[in-house]
Amino acid sequence: MQSTSPKPIDAVIVGAGGGGGIVAQELATAGWNVVVLERGRWMKFEETGHHELKSQRTTVLGSAFGPDDARHVRMRQTGPDKWTKVLPSDGAYNNIAACVGGGTLSYGAMAWRFLPKDFAMKSTYGAPPGSTLEDWPITYDDLAPYYDRAEWDIGVNGRAGANTFEGKRGKDYPMPPLPFNREASILNAAAKKLGWHPFPIPMAINSKPYGGRPGCVMCPHCVGFQCEVNAKSSTAATVLPRAIATGNCDVRTECVAYSILTDTKGRAQAVAYFDAQGKRQVVNARKAVILAASATETARLLLLSKSKLYPNGIGNRHDWVGRNLQGHAYSGAFGLFDQELYDGVGPAARIAVCDFNHGNDGIIGGAMLCNEFIRLPYLFARSIRPPGAARWGKKHKDFQRQWYKRSMGVKGPVQEVPRWEARVELDPAVTDHWGIPTLRLSGGRHPKDIETGRFIARKSAEWLRAAGALEVFESVAGSGLSGGQHQAGTARMSKDIQSGVVDTDCRVHETENLYIADGSVHVTNGGFNPSLTIQALAYRTSARILKNV
Questions:
Q1: Roughly how many angstroms between the first and final C-alpha of the chain, as a whole number?
Q2: Fewer CB in 10 Å around end: N or C, the chain?
Q3: How far is the C-alpha of 171 from the C-alpha of 161, rounded, in Å?
C-alpha cells in the first residue's frame, strides 16, 4: 500500500499513528507530496488473530504490535543514580504500539472529548506544590469543531447529549451507540439508583456500516487486538488509505528516524533515518516536518536533533522537552456476583458516568468511570484477584472457574497532575540497535494523583455494590511514572517559549516549520482516553499548516 512520486517532497511526517495518519490525509488531499516514516510496519490480522498471549495487554510473548524486544531498548530509573535496561515486554518500558496505525490499530477505541474544565485545570484548582499544573492556551470551544471533524471523518458512534456534562457540540455523532450488553444494563440501573448520570460510551467503532467499512460483529476480542473486519476506526483503515489513494503519500515502513536536520536559519529541512535495511537515509521536506511519534519518541527525537542553533535539542531552549510526562493513574474496583454477567458480547465496555470528573471536594480533577472490556482468561488470572488470593494451584483454579463469568470491573483514567521531574531524556551511554542514544525515563506521580485515585476507587466500588456485588476489592494506581498507552505532555503547548515547546498551532516555538501532532502537546491529559483529542488537534494542526506554510 505505497505510492511513490518523482515530485519534490513537501512534508515529512514521523509516525503513522493516530495523529500522523490524519496529517498525512489532510496534506495529501490538499495536493502536498508527503512522506510518512513509520518505525513499524503494516500489520495483518492473521499475524496476531485472537491469540490472547500475544495481545490483550499481555506481554508474555513480546509486543504484538511492536516494537520488537531485540532492537528497541530503554533505561528506567530504579533508584538514586541507578538505571536499568528494559525491553518493550517489560511494563517499566511504558510501551506504545509501533506499527502503521499505532495504538489505534489495537486500542479499545473509546473516543472521548475532553470537558471544558479539562483545558483550565490551574484556573479551576490552582497548582499544588511540586507540580507544573497549567491551563491550556486554547479552550474547548477552540477544539470543538475539530472534535466534530474527527468523529465524522474516522467514524465514531455515540449519542449527542447523552453525557449531561459534555461541552457544546456542533452536530450529533455519525452513528448510534452500540446497545447495552448484560453488564451495562445492570450498571445502568445501579447508577440511576445512586442518582448518577449513565450514558453509552462513544467509540471509534462502526455500530453500522460506515465509510466503506462494515459494522462491529461484537466479538469479545477487541481491546488489545486488531479488528478482523476493520470495524474499528484505526488510522490504518481510514485516513491513511485515503492519503495513499491521492497519489501524494508514500508510507515508508520500518524506518527509524534519528535526527531533524535544519538550515542556517533554523528551519527544519529534512529528517535523517535508518531504512528497513539499516542504511542511513535523508528525506528532504520543502515546506514542513511534522512529528507524531508518541510523547516519548517525539521528545527523544527533539533531544537528538542538536546543532549550533539548537545545542540542547530543537524546542528545548528552556528545558521543557521531555518534561511533564503523563499518562493516567487508572483506579477502580472489581466485584464478584452471584449471577453470570459474562455474555461474550464485545466490546464489553459500553457504559460510563462523568459525575466525578470535576467538582469533588478536596480533589483535583477526577475521572470518568466505565465498565471494563472483556478480560480473556489469562488477563483475568493476572489481574482479577482479591488481596491475598492464591496465584497458583487448586485454589487459583477454583477461583478462576467460579468467578470468571461472575465478575465485573469499573475503572477510571485519573487525570494526573503534571510534574517537572516526570521526564524523558537521553541516556548518556546506552544506545539502541542502530547506535542511537536511547531514552531513559524517571520521576513519578504527584501525591494528589493517589488521593484522586482512592476517591475514584471508592466511587467504583459504590457503583458495583449498588449493582449487587457480593464482594468488592479496590485498585489504586501506585506512585510510579505513568507513560504507557496514554502518554502525553513532553512537548507541552504554551503561549510563549519560556513556558513550553509548541505554540497554539502546535508549531515548535523556535522552529517555524516544525509541528507536533501527538499527545506530547497536551498540557494536561483529561480524565479520559486521549485518542480523540490527539486526533482533533491533528485536524486543527493540519489546517494551520496549510494556512501558515
A1: 28
A2: N
A3: 10
Cα–Cα distance, 374 to 186 (Å, whole number): 16
Q: How far is CA 346 from CA 178, 343, 375, in A?
A: 10, 9, 10
Question: Residue 157 carries which DSSP code?
Answer: B
- The whole-angstrom distance between residue 299's C-alpha and the CA centroid of its chain comes to 15
pTM above 0.70, yes or no: yes
Count CB-CB contacts under 10 A for residue 350.
Answer: 24
Could you report the per-residue pLDDT of 167-217, keeping only the tens digit for each?
999 999 999 999 999 999 999 999 999 999 999 999 999 999 999 999 999
Torsion of CA 216, 218, 222, 223, to 10 degrees: 100
DSSP track, 200-216: EPPBSB-SS-BTTBPPP
Report d(CA 379, CA 31) in Å as an integer: 46
Q: Is the peptide bond before 80 cis (omega within 30 degrees of 0)?
A: no
Query: Are the C-beta atoms of 519 and 530 separated by less than 8 Å?
Result: yes
Sequence-distant (≥ 6) Cβ neighbours of residue 91 within 8 angstroms: 59, 484
Element (H, E) at 239: helix 239-245
**Are 165 and 249 in contact, with CB atoms under 8 Å apart?**
no
Q: Regarding the domain delimited by 11-548, which CATH topology (the fold level of the hierarchy) does it fall under?
A: FAD/NAD(P)-binding domain (3.50.50)
Sheet-wide strand order for 331-336: 199-200, 351-353, 369-371, 407-412, 331-336, 471-475
Q: What are φ and ψ of residue 488, in 5° steps?
A: -160, 170
- Under a CB-based contact definition with an 8 Å cutoff, are residues 373 and 222 in contact? yes
The closest of 327, 254, 204 to 99, measured between CA atoms, is: 254
| Segments in the chain below pLDDT 50 | 1-5
**Are the C-beta atoms of 243 and 249 separated by less than 8 Å?**
yes
Which of 357, 343, 261 minimizes the C-alpha distance to 301? 261
Reduced 3-state DSSP string for 292-357: CCCHHHHHHHHHHCCCCCCCCCCCCCCCCCCCCCECECCEEEEEECCCCCCCCCCCCCCEEECCCC
How big is the chain, counted in residues? 549
All cell numbers assigned to 97: 504500539
Q: Residue 82: CB partners within 8 Å, gap ≥ 6?
A: none
Phi/psi-derived region of residue 368, left when phi > 0, alpha when psi is between -120 and 50, beta in every other case? beta
Sheet holding 249-253, edge to edge: 249-253, 34-38, 11-14, 288-291, 514-516
Question: What is the pLDDT at residue 378?
Answer: 85
Residue keyed to cell 449527542: 160
Per-residue cell: 198: 449513565
Centre a 10 Å sphere on the Cβ of residue 242 and count the other Cβ atoms it contains.
19
Domains of the chain, residue spans: 11-548
